[in-house]
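Sharing in case it's useful to others searching the archive later.

Someone asked me privately for the predicted structure of Phospho-2-dehydro-3-deoxyheptonate aldolase, so I'm posting the question and my answer publicly. Question first, with the sequence:
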Amino acid sequence: MSALSNSLNLDSWRALPAAQQPDWPDRAELDKVVAELGGLPPLVFAGECDQLKDQLAAVVRGEAFVLQGGDCAETFAGATADNVRNKLKTLLQMAIVLTYAGKVPVVKIGRLAGQFAKPRSKNTETRAGIELPAYRGDMVNGFDFTPESRIPDPARLLKAYHSSAVTLNLARAFTKGGYADLRQVHAWNQDFVAESPAGRRYEQLAREIDQALAFMRACGADPEEFHSVEYYSSHEALILDYDQALTRVDSRTGLPYDVSAHMVWIGERTRQLDGAHVEFFSRIRNPIGVKLGPTTTPDEALALIDKLNPDNVPGRLTFITRMGASKIREFLPTLVKEVTASGAQIAWICDPMHGNTFEAPSGHKTRRLDDVLDEVAGFFEVHRSLGTHPGGIHIEFTGDDVTECVGGGHEIAEGDLATRYETACDPRLNRGQSLDLAFRVAELYRG
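And my answer, the predicted structure tokens:
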């Protein structure tokens, strides 16, 4: 145990059950990798985490909206300039739709630069009578269905760090180096507008923005905020050895921050109150999230608040609900009502993806865009009926023209899924479907 961990009790989680952790074959090798990670530079800075916390506090107050999204599971091979740019392009287009059509400031958070580990419902996978360990993300083992590939390898933790660093550098370059300039609203769409209903709708909105910008320039106004965006990284902090190794004490405050990302969250499968993840998250000072499924009781939610945000700091804790379109109107109201009555300062975000997955006849895991849209609509209905703020959406998308979810203005049918089904884990919205969703959310927010 390091002096840092000892003084801040960052190792307290090790005495508790830790769900969804890999079965590392060589603990000595893991310890060696963790020690090396502990000496590497931070990927983000504590001050940036605090800046995001302040923006999420505005969401709590009903003054802003969160757009959080990106890959279901990043891959090391996907850390390329083209892939990162395409994901950012989609996120920027969605944010423009929400900001302009929804008339609300948007906090932009990517599932990017760290989303390399995935929880699994089963520890093993069987194909043609052969049973192997489940793929748990590139941070843990390989996607190829071979015994060698599926062995958990601690060296992958180091590769995840370096891949995250590359991705973050690219994201910073794109968002600060002119690519995110509002005058680029047409350029983001050039490869997309002709064949896509969502692209054509976006192009019309881009023309309106151009006219507004021209008017402002004629008036002598050209704010700095028009030329770059604040962009934050996030991931599910699933592999606790990795996230603890990247925890550093902020020189300004003497408090520990998980500097692998600006925001980290606890998944639905790892939110046990007496579990290791909740304990570790209680020690770090980042803005954090917790995924809540339909089985979550108000008492559980309130206990999570007591453990993770005992000082009731706005922006510290976000609840990301993942109920499913058929359940959100039934189970969310009581949760929101009782948490609100407690006085807890919570941002509420809707994850309309994870509760709406099904298997197509072809065997592909997929989601219907209509179900995604219906869950978002239910999320807004519940908050409007209670007078609370629908604070954002959390989605899995890609900037590529994949065929993983069915539906959308450019219709993808179940028979089309095999055309470009490329995800390493769960099905993602493609760019057109993501824009369809953004326009619908903007309508709901305005309404």
